[in-house]
Amino acid sequence: MMQKEKRYDEIVSRNVPGIQDKLSNGKVAVAGLGGLGSNIAVMLARVGVGNLLLVDFDKVEPGNLNRQHYNTAHLGMYKTDALKKQIELINPYIRIETHALKITEENAAEVFEGYPIICEAFDNAENKALLVNALLEEGRKKIVAASGMNGLGSANKIRTKRKFRNLYLCGDSAAPAEEGIGFMAPRVIVCAGHQANMVLRLLTGEEEV
Amino acid sequence: MYVNGQQIILTDEISLQEFLQKEGYDTQKVAVEKNGGIVPKTLFHEEKLADSDKLEIVSFVGGG
Questions:
Q1: Alpha carbon separation from B49 to A40, B39, B46 (Å, rounded)
Q2: Total tally of structural domains belonging to chain B
Q3: Does the distance separating the beta carbons of A137 and B60 come in below 8 Å?
Q4: A12, A85, A149, B62 — which has fewest CB within 10 A?
Q5: CB-CB under 8 Å, B63 with A150
Q6: How far lies A132's CA from each of A118, A157, A170, in Å?
Q7: Closest-CA distance of chain A to residue B25, Å
Q8: Complex ipTM, two decimals?
Q9: In Å, how far is B11's CA from the nearest CA of chain A?
Q10: What CATH number does residue B24 fall under?
């Protein structure tokens, strides 16, 4: 066995058995690399999801470090580059594509071409809706989105729900009035875990939550 | 009509856009599925609702 294959097998040796081919052949896009997206991408890389598309126009700043998967060495870097660097150190055998650009109604279909599963991990509610609408109207993709993970409420309120045929939504279903009360690593990462887990279920053929 | 699993009685003819506004949704922050199919945003104004419809409305809050 080649050295590379041996190391790859070692990295994923504690994974659930019998599914690695599905994960290794998986193609998943992460739209937004903040508190949700950076942690989702790292989790997917750790378990060996073989092809990741990372999309974000932003650079790492100090205010990100309370919940996002970056450190002080990444300040000022594009999040796409900072995350790619980290993933290459965790699991060097993942194929990573990056786009440092802002998603619009016009470019969404083209940017996510070839990726059947997309994690919506944007910060802004209008951008979340824009991406979900643009991709669902195209019809062939499954989207795992997030809404409601701020504050210090119970972690148990964060759930995964299948809202539409092709739309899964993770979060605490908070009302819009509760927006903007601060974001803490634990609840954001609980929500990221919900999204990453739903992605793994989809990759292994399980469509229910 | 059913909206997110709850029954709502429709009395007058109403478009999806009007219904969302009446119910207090910000139409820039929603995605809507009607009878199992996504309703394109550009059609919210002309999409008429009927009492037999089933709507699922997702309203996003910021954060990520």
A1: 38, 12, 10
A2: 1
A3: no
A4: A85
A5: yes
A6: 9, 23, 13
A7: 9
A8: 0.95
A9: 26
A10: 3.10.20.30
